[in-house]
């Protein structure tokens, strides 16, 4: 499993812990749902800016996105 897949799995776990759908996370983060899906599937290499948006939408520190 590569780092993109690990990140995607971690994002999915945090999203589900917060009780959010991909659509809700997309709305809160300003990203689109297909992009969230691709991240969770390990198909996208996310930037620090995207990590910041995701962390903010989840209400967590960026470091919690990193396994």
UniProtKB/TrEMBL annotation:
Entry keyword set: DNA-binding
Pfam families documented for this protein: HTH_3 (PF01381)
SUPFAM superfamilies per the UniProt record, alphabetical: lambda repressor-like DNA-binding domains
Gene3D superfamilies: lambda repressor-like DNA-binding domains
Keyword DNA-binding recorded: yes
Residue ranges of domain HTH cro/C1-type in the record: 11-65
Hydrolase keyword on record: no
Domain of life according to the entry: Bacteria
Designated name of the protein: Helix-turn-helix transcriptional regulator
Organism: Algoriphagus marincola
The organism's taxonomic lineage, starting at the top: Bacteria, Pseudomonadati, Bacteroidota, Cytophagia, Cytophagales
């Amino acid at each position: 499993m590569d780092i993109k897949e690990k990140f995607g799995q971690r994002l999915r776990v945090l999203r589900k812990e917060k009780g959010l759908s991909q659509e809700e996370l997309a709305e809160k983060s300003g990203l689109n749902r297909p992009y969230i899906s691709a991240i969770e599937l390990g198909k996208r290499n996310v930037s620090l800016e995207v990590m910041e948006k995701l962390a903010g939408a989840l209400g967590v520190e960026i470091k919690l996105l990193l396994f």
